[in-house]
Input
Amino acid sequence: DQQVKQNSPSLSVQEGRISILNCDYTNSMFDYFLWYKKYPAEGPTFLISISSIKDKNEDGRFTVFLNKSAKHLSLHIVPSQPGDSAVYFCAAGSMSGSARQLTFGSGTQLTVLP
Amino acid sequence: DGGITQSPKYLFRKEGQNVTLSCEQNLNHDAMYWYRQDPGQGLRLIYYSQIVNDFQKGDIAEGYSVSREKKESFPLTVTSAQKNPTAFYLCASSPGTKETQYFGPGTRLLVL
Output
Protein backbone atom coordinates (compact mmCIF):
# COMPACT_ATOMS: atom_id res chain seq x y z
CA ASP A 1 0.00 0.00 0.00
CA GLN A 2 1.67 3.19 -1.21
CA GLN A 3 1.22 5.88 1.40
CA VAL A 4 2.91 8.52 -0.75
CA LYS A 5 2.07 8.62 -4.44
CA GLN A 6 3.49 10.54 -7.35
CA ASN A 7 1.12 9.61 -10.15
CA SER A 8 3.04 11.26 -12.97
CA PRO A 9 6.22 9.34 -13.77
CA SER A 10 7.37 12.08 -16.14
CA LEU A 11 6.78 15.73 -17.00
CA SER A 12 8.20 17.89 -19.82
CA VAL A 13 8.21 21.67 -19.62
CA GLN A 14 9.61 24.43 -21.79
CA GLU A 15 12.45 26.48 -20.35
CA GLY A 16 11.17 29.60 -18.59
CA ARG A 17 7.73 28.15 -17.93
CA ILE A 18 6.34 26.81 -14.66
CA SER A 19 6.87 23.18 -13.61
CA ILE A 20 4.27 21.71 -11.27
CA LEU A 21 5.01 18.38 -9.63
CA ASN A 22 2.29 16.69 -7.61
CA CYS A 23 2.22 14.32 -4.68
CA ASP A 24 -0.64 12.68 -2.79
CA TYR A 25 -0.55 10.94 0.58
CA THR A 26 -2.96 8.74 2.49
CA ASN A 27 -1.61 8.63 6.05
CA SER A 28 -3.22 11.31 8.23
CA MET A 29 -0.32 11.04 10.68
CA PHE A 30 2.06 12.66 8.21
CA ASP A 31 2.78 16.20 9.29
CA TYR A 32 6.09 17.00 7.63
CA PHE A 33 6.80 16.90 3.92
CA LEU A 34 9.96 17.28 1.88
CA TRP A 35 10.99 17.45 -1.77
CA TYR A 36 14.26 16.01 -3.00
CA LYS A 37 15.91 16.30 -6.41
CA LYS A 38 17.99 13.45 -7.80
CA TYR A 39 20.35 13.22 -10.75
CA PRO A 40 21.25 9.77 -12.19
CA ALA A 41 23.77 7.80 -10.13
CA GLU A 42 23.80 10.44 -7.39
CA GLY A 43 22.15 10.75 -4.00
CA PRO A 44 19.01 12.89 -3.59
CA THR A 45 19.54 16.54 -2.73
CA PHE A 46 17.16 18.23 -0.29
CA LEU A 47 15.19 21.04 -1.91
CA ILE A 48 12.45 22.34 0.34
CA SER A 49 10.16 21.20 3.14
CA ILE A 50 6.87 22.16 4.72
CA SER A 51 5.17 21.29 7.98
CA SER A 52 1.44 20.79 8.34
CA ILE A 53 0.99 24.07 10.21
CA LYS A 54 1.69 25.91 6.96
CA ASP A 55 0.08 25.75 3.53
CA LYS A 56 2.93 27.32 1.59
CA ASN A 57 6.69 27.57 1.78
CA GLU A 58 8.87 29.43 -0.69
CA ASP A 59 12.60 29.32 -1.37
CA GLY A 60 13.78 31.18 -4.45
CA ARG A 61 12.36 29.56 -7.56
CA PHE A 62 10.83 26.71 -5.54
CA THR A 63 7.47 26.85 -3.76
CA VAL A 64 5.72 23.97 -2.04
CA PHE A 65 1.97 24.07 -1.45
CA LEU A 66 0.17 21.82 1.03
CA ASN A 67 -3.56 21.07 0.93
CA LYS A 68 -4.20 19.06 4.08
CA SER A 69 -7.88 18.43 3.44
CA ALA A 70 -7.05 16.91 0.05
CA LYS A 71 -3.87 15.24 1.35
CA HIS A 72 -2.04 16.77 -1.57
CA LEU A 73 1.15 18.72 -2.00
CA SER A 74 2.78 20.25 -5.03
CA LEU A 75 6.15 21.70 -5.95
CA HIS A 76 6.23 24.70 -8.27
CA ILE A 77 9.42 25.68 -10.05
CA VAL A 78 9.37 29.12 -11.67
CA PRO A 79 11.02 29.77 -14.04
CA SER A 80 12.12 26.28 -15.06
CA GLN A 81 15.72 25.88 -16.21
CA PRO A 82 17.42 23.03 -18.12
CA GLY A 83 19.50 22.28 -15.00
CA ASP A 84 16.26 21.45 -13.19
CA SER A 85 15.95 18.29 -15.30
CA ALA A 86 16.10 15.48 -12.74
CA VAL A 87 13.91 13.05 -10.80
CA TYR A 88 11.93 14.72 -8.03
CA PHE A 89 10.86 12.72 -4.98
CA CYS A 90 8.36 13.84 -2.39
CA ALA A 91 8.69 12.38 1.09
CA ALA A 92 6.47 12.47 4.15
CA GLY A 93 7.06 11.87 7.83
CA SER A 94 5.47 12.23 11.23
CA MET A 95 6.92 14.29 14.07
CA SER A 96 5.16 12.09 16.63
CA GLY A 97 6.77 9.03 18.09
CA SER A 98 10.39 8.38 18.91
CA ALA A 99 11.75 8.56 15.41
CA ARG A 100 10.70 10.02 12.14
CA GLN A 101 10.97 7.68 9.24
CA LEU A 102 10.42 9.18 5.85
CA THR A 103 8.15 7.53 3.30
CA PHE A 104 9.07 8.37 -0.29
CA GLY A 105 7.01 8.56 -3.46
CA SER A 106 8.19 6.82 -6.62
CA GLY A 107 9.47 10.02 -8.21
CA THR A 108 8.68 12.20 -11.23
CA GLN A 109 11.21 12.69 -14.02
CA LEU A 110 11.19 16.38 -14.97
CA THR A 111 12.64 17.35 -18.34
CA VAL A 112 13.08 21.05 -19.05
CA LEU A 113 13.38 21.64 -22.77
CA PRO A 114 15.60 24.50 -24.00
CA ASP B 1 34.29 19.95 3.61
CA GLY B 2 31.41 18.36 5.51
CA GLY B 3 29.41 15.62 3.92
CA ILE B 4 28.46 12.00 3.56
CA THR B 5 30.67 9.59 1.67
CA GLN B 6 29.79 6.16 0.42
CA SER B 7 32.16 3.59 -0.98
CA PRO B 8 32.58 1.92 -3.31
CA LYS B 9 30.60 3.59 -6.08
CA TYR B 10 30.05 0.20 -7.74
CA LEU B 11 30.17 -3.20 -6.06
CA PHE B 12 29.86 -6.67 -7.49
CA ARG B 13 28.65 -9.60 -5.47
CA LYS B 14 28.98 -13.27 -6.26
CA GLU B 15 26.26 -15.73 -5.36
CA GLY B 16 26.37 -16.68 -1.67
CA GLN B 17 28.75 -13.87 -0.78
CA ASN B 18 28.31 -11.22 1.91
CA VAL B 19 29.35 -7.68 0.96
CA THR B 20 29.67 -4.55 3.06
CA LEU B 21 28.85 -1.04 1.92
CA SER B 22 30.56 1.83 3.67
CA CYS B 23 28.92 5.07 4.83
CA GLU B 24 30.80 7.81 6.66
CA GLN B 25 29.68 11.29 7.69
CA ASN B 26 31.60 14.20 9.22
CA LEU B 27 28.52 16.33 9.87
CA ASN B 28 28.31 15.30 13.54
CA HIS B 29 24.82 13.97 12.87
CA ASP B 30 23.30 11.61 15.43
CA ALA B 31 20.96 9.73 13.09
CA MET B 32 21.93 7.65 10.06
CA TYR B 33 19.84 5.67 7.56
CA TRP B 34 20.13 3.13 4.77
CA TYR B 35 17.73 3.11 1.83
CA ARG B 36 17.41 0.99 -1.25
CA GLN B 37 16.20 2.31 -4.61
CA ASP B 38 14.95 0.07 -7.39
CA PRO B 39 14.13 1.30 -10.92
CA GLY B 40 10.85 3.22 -11.04
CA GLN B 41 10.40 3.04 -7.30
CA GLY B 42 10.90 5.35 -4.39
CA LEU B 43 13.42 4.89 -1.63
CA ARG B 44 12.68 2.13 0.86
CA LEU B 45 14.14 2.19 4.36
CA ILE B 46 16.36 -0.77 5.29
CA TYR B 47 17.75 0.22 8.71
CA TYR B 48 18.20 3.38 10.73
CA SER B 49 20.19 4.37 13.78
CA GLN B 50 19.32 7.18 16.18
CA ILE B 51 22.51 7.01 18.25
CA VAL B 52 25.72 5.01 18.54
CA ASN B 53 25.25 1.34 19.40
CA ASP B 54 21.55 1.48 18.56
CA PHE B 55 19.75 0.65 15.33
CA GLN B 56 16.24 -0.27 14.22
CA LYS B 57 14.82 -2.25 11.32
CA GLY B 58 13.11 -0.39 8.55
CA ASP B 59 10.56 -1.69 6.07
CA ILE B 60 12.83 -4.14 4.23
CA ALA B 61 15.51 -5.28 6.71
CA GLU B 62 15.49 -8.98 5.81
CA GLY B 63 18.82 -10.09 4.35
CA TYR B 64 20.68 -7.02 5.65
CA SER B 65 22.64 -6.21 8.79
CA VAL B 66 24.19 -3.02 10.18
CA SER B 67 26.40 -1.80 12.99
CA ARG B 68 26.88 1.61 14.59
CA GLU B 69 30.06 1.46 16.64
CA LYS B 70 31.05 5.03 15.85
CA LYS B 71 28.93 8.13 15.39
CA GLU B 72 30.39 8.86 11.98
CA SER B 73 30.10 5.36 10.50
CA PHE B 74 27.10 3.14 9.62
CA PRO B 75 28.16 0.20 7.42
CA LEU B 76 25.56 -2.00 5.74
CA THR B 77 26.18 -5.70 5.07
CA VAL B 78 24.18 -7.36 2.32
CA THR B 79 24.10 -11.02 3.29
CA SER B 80 23.62 -14.09 1.12
CA ALA B 81 20.09 -14.27 2.53
CA GLN B 82 19.14 -11.21 0.45
CA LYS B 83 17.89 -12.91 -2.71
CA ASN B 84 17.51 -9.81 -4.85
CA PRO B 85 20.35 -7.49 -3.87
CA THR B 86 20.81 -5.68 -7.18
CA ALA B 87 19.85 -2.06 -6.44
CA PHE B 88 21.14 1.44 -5.75
CA TYR B 89 21.91 1.84 -2.04
CA LEU B 90 21.72 5.26 -0.40
CA CYS B 91 22.96 6.30 3.00
CA ALA B 92 21.60 9.39 4.72
CA SER B 93 22.11 11.24 7.97
CA SER B 94 20.30 13.90 9.97
CA PRO B 95 21.12 15.92 13.10
CA GLY B 96 18.30 14.11 14.91
CA THR B 97 15.62 11.74 13.77
CA LYS B 98 13.02 14.50 13.46
CA GLU B 99 15.09 16.58 11.09
CA THR B 100 15.84 16.76 7.38
CA GLN B 101 17.88 13.87 6.03
CA TYR B 102 20.89 14.45 3.79
CA PHE B 103 22.07 11.79 1.38
CA GLY B 104 25.38 10.39 0.22
CA PRO B 105 26.19 9.71 -3.46
CA GLY B 106 25.08 6.06 -3.37
CA THR B 107 26.54 2.63 -4.14
CA ARG B 108 25.28 0.50 -7.00
CA LEU B 109 25.38 -3.20 -6.16
CA LEU B 110 25.34 -5.75 -8.96
CA VAL B 111 25.21 -9.53 -8.72
CA LEU B 112 27.53 -11.59 -10.91
The CA atoms of residues 31 and 52 of chain A lie 5 Å apart.
